[in-house]
Amino acid sequence: MHSAQSLFQATDFNLAPLTPVVDRGFADDVLHGLALPQKQLHAKYFYDQQGSDYFDQICQLPEYYPYQTELDLLPQVATDLAGTFTADCTIVEFGAGSLVKIKPLLSAISSIRQFIPIDISGIHLEMASQQLQSDFPDLAVLPVVGDFCFPVELPVIGNQQKVGFFPGSTIGNFCPAQAASFLKNARFTLGPDSCLLIGVDTKKSPLYLHNAYNDAQGITAKFNRNILSRINRELGANFTPEKFEHYAFYNAGQGRVEMHLVSTSEQVVDVLGSSVAFAAGESIHTENSYKYTPDEFCQLAASAGWQVERTWLAKQDLFATYLLRNRG
């Protein structure tokens, strides 16, 4: 089981303080990814404090439809789900971020007593959790710093039903095999009689997708390049982020948007004593965002032991939210 930190105590239902966690695998992942024929970096490392701030800005951009489209859909989802879950249930949010999208559920579903947000960015998580605790003072907010790509050890809270929440189409950042692995791990984390409410982006016009990942203000480009700044700061590398251009496009054959950082010149970068050479035009593949039709996602969920109980589609089928039930 992948370890995660929580200072929750069974007798204390206040917001638990957090101790920041350094991902010990960061250096190994970076060195391994940059040694591949197609250089790559894992998208989870976007989300240091600066990266999380950039992503919050992206979510306010007019081009970036997934955020607002899902946010507009969630009040209807929450209303439809009122009375669905058992009394004193616990909501577990994977990749919690700013905790904005959980609020419609907390407002509409009175049976929620505990909320466990999981995120890799401890500082960002602590700030958001403190604000949520202020907004919902009767809710036990128990933040956990951890990598939700693996099974996560949750605070001991009894045998209440656990409902997972995974908004934002973050599932699309995994390749299908990794997505199935995440869904299986989520079943393990949440346990029997659990449900999972998940947001999934749909397939649509390539031009629509292109605009969403190439905003006019260049915030997505800053977000993409920030991963190089993080490597410099935490691993002592000497990337010059300005020598890499943001490049995002829809790969129709793979059903995904790809994000890359393209070297603008021939250059050599030092990372932890290793020299990493780049040719002009060579890229680092930093992120995928897979898109799924409803049929494709239902098949993916079934392969991981989940059954789709209900589907909500946004206007023009731009986005989908699914309620899954653990079949195990």
From TrEMBL:
GO biological process annotation, one example: methylation
Superkingdom classification of source: Bacteria
GO molecular function, a single term: methyltransferase activity
InterPro entries xrefs: EgtD, EgtD_Methyltrsf_superfamily, MeTrfase_dom, MeTrfase_EgtD-like, SAM-dependent_MTases_sf
Pfam family, one: Methyltransf_33
Keywords: Methyltransferase, Transferase
Histidine-specific methyltransferase SAM-dependent domain span: 26-325
Transmembrane segments: none
Name the UniProt record assigns to this protein: Dimethylhistidine N-methyltransferase
Organism encoding this protein: Arsukibacterium tuosuense
